[in-house]
Specification:
By secondary structure, the chain is α/β, with parallel strands linked by helices. It has seven helices and ten strands. The termini are far apart. GO terms for molecular function: iron-sulfur cluster binding; metal ion binding.
């Protein structure tokens, strides 16, 4: 089902979905950027189209929705443990094709790379559906075309945005809650970037592991974890037991 509608009609649909879904999209947060008097764009829960920021490139990845920066897995005492409570609401994320392809790599690591699927990742991932935001043109430092991540058909809703007008390609009947005018269109995707990357063929992973380039980054690394949190495809994490001060056998 393909529809054309204005932002007020779109917000009515979002409001209906909020009964069952948490809705995430890139949001501009004023004065929270890296430097003084700069903003940052991160994925946050939203209530309306006006809160979403698609004119600028996000500083963070939607990965922080499916793989949170910190997460309580369970609580324990001397005799037993209890899993942390789960939010049963489903999740709808508005994101771009490159982001969906990035999460696809996380799926490979946590769901398909071994005999067992990662229990905690799967609990969140099973609730997630994607709303693909079309890209008419590339941002200046994107190279999605070179990485073949500029397209995807893995979405429940596809949309193009033209000012106050939205075009929706609804593939999942669960999201047929929007009222608009029937139309025909294709979701926009980037066909050319301002920069390109030459990706070598037949990369030997053993040679890459021993490449001297890592020595340079190793000497500069302060272990803050920023890189593996921001990178949409990085699956690195650490685990830590936190004990209560009142009783060191409980945490």
């Amino acid at each position: 089902m393909k529809l054309k509608l204005d932002s007020s009609k779109f917000n009515e649909g979002l409001n209906y979905l909020k009964k069952d879904y948490k809705i995430f999209a890139p949001v501009l947060i004023p004065f929270k950027g890296t430097f003084s008097d700069t903003d940052v764009i991160r994925y946050k829960e939203v209530n309306a189209f006006e809160e979403m920021e698609f004119a600028k490139k996000a500083n963070f990845s939607p990965k922080e929705v499916v793989l949170p920066i910190n997460q309580v897995l369970f609580y324990f005492t001397e005799k037993e443990f209890k899993e942390s409570d789960l939010d049963n609401k489903k999740i709808l994320i508005f994101l771009r094709a490159c982001d969906i392809n990035g999460i696809k790599r996380l799926d490979e690591i946590y769901l398909n790379n071994g005999e067992e699927k990662d229990y905690f990742y799967k609990n969140i991932r099973d609730k997630v559906k994607f709303a693909l935001v079309g890209c008419k043109e590339s941002f200046r430092n994107c190279f999605c075309v070179s990485m073949d991540s500029n397209k995807t058909d893995n979405y429940s809703i596809g949309l193009n945005i033209e000012g106050d007008t939205l075009y929706l390609d609804i593939k999942d009947s669960e999201f047929e809650v929007f009222n608009g005018e029937a139309t025909e269109f294709n979701v926009d995707y980037v066909t050319d970037n301002l920069i390109s990357v030459d990706v070598p063929e037949n990369i030997d992973s053993n040679e890459m592991i021993g490449n001297s380039i890592w020595d340079e980054y190793d000497t500069r690394c302060i272990g803050c974890g920023r890189c593996n949190f921001v990178c949409p495809t990085c699956s690195c994490f650490t685990m830590q037991d936190i004990f209560y001060k009142e009783n060191e056998n409980v945490g």
